[in-house]
Design a protein that fits this description.
This protein is an alpha/beta fold and 264 residues long. Helix content is 20%, strand content 27%. The longest helix is centred in the N-terminal third of the chain and has 17 residues.
């Protein structure tokens, strides 16, 4: 089995230097000691599962840069430089592109104005791309990402993502090839055709947000009891981690990780 590679950003200073919480869509200030320990345990769990992690430094003035998922979309053909939907995150796209360039990733395309697409709104599995149109990903962005991915022969499936979810990744996760965890009642009929579906009840903005480690093993936030029970009942091993300090930043487990598809 190929090593799964991903980019993570350890919280050192910027995540804790937030004066205007609303501007950055952060609900409460994070505790630095707890946040660093929680992030380190998540990374250690991933590495023990065989992942190779690239650690990048936070972008100055950008507390949300710890949420690497949103900044780019990696495909087996190269990465797509995205365009952030939250104004205070402008600049994170170029920052991540530079980091990806440094490790030899090829840039495939760029989302241009007026399009906005955040990585939490795109989930890829082999030849299928699930795309969310949300408060962070607009119609112009959907049209661009749909055109790019269709050109790569993806079957692009688009859904409107309602509140309280920021992204499609709060309402669904790919938990292994051709198997999804999703919230009941969010997606249109037929959206998951040809996939095995594990449905759970809607709870909060990251109800169905988990990290798939491979080999039917996932990371879930330990308070996410509905998802944990459903996954365990379907034969998954679940690492339950306390990620409370990142929930304060309105991010779930997968928001902290940018998987690199070329290494799978």
């Amino acid at each position: 089995m190929s090593t799964i590679r991903a980019v993570v950003c350890e919280p050192e200073r910027e995540y804790f230097k937030v004066e205007d919480l609303k501007k950055h869509n952060i609900t409460l200030p994070a505790d630095p000691e707890k946040a660093r320990a929680q992030h380190a345990l998540m990374c250690r769990t991933m590495e023990e599962a065989g992942w190779k992690l690239y650690r990048v430094k936070e972008l100055a003035g950008h507390p949300n840069s710890v949420f690497t998922m949103d900044t780019a979309l990696s495909t087996p053909y190269g990465y797509i430089q995205l365009r952030m939907g939250l104004e205070s995150r402008d600049g994170e796209e170029e920052w991540m592109a530079k980091n990806l360039d440094k490790i030899g990733e090829k840039r495939l395309a760029i989302i241009e104005k007026p399009g906005k697409v955040e990585g939490g709104d795109v989930i890829l599995d082999r030849d299928v791309a699930f795309v969310g149109q949300s408060g962070r990903t607009n119609q112009a962005g959907v049209e661009q990402i749909e055109r790019i991915l269709a050109g790569l022969n993806y079957d692009v499936r688009v859904a409107q993502i309602p509140q309280p979810y920021l992204h499609i990744g709060g309402a669904m996760s790919l938990v292994e090839k051709r198997t999804v965890l999703c919230c009941r009642g969010v997606f249109p009929p037929g959206f998951f055709h040809d996939f095995e579906v594990i449905e759970i009840e809607k709870d909060n903005f990251v109800t169905a947000n988990v990290i798939a480690l491979g080999e039917k093993t996932v990371i879930a936030e330990y308070r996410n009891s509905g998802a944990i029970s459903a996954l365990q009942n379907n034969g998954f091993q679940v690492h339950t981690l306390d990620l409370s300090e990142f929930l304060k930043g309105t991010g779930g487990p997968s928001c902290l990780v940018l998987p690199l598809k070329g290494g799978e």
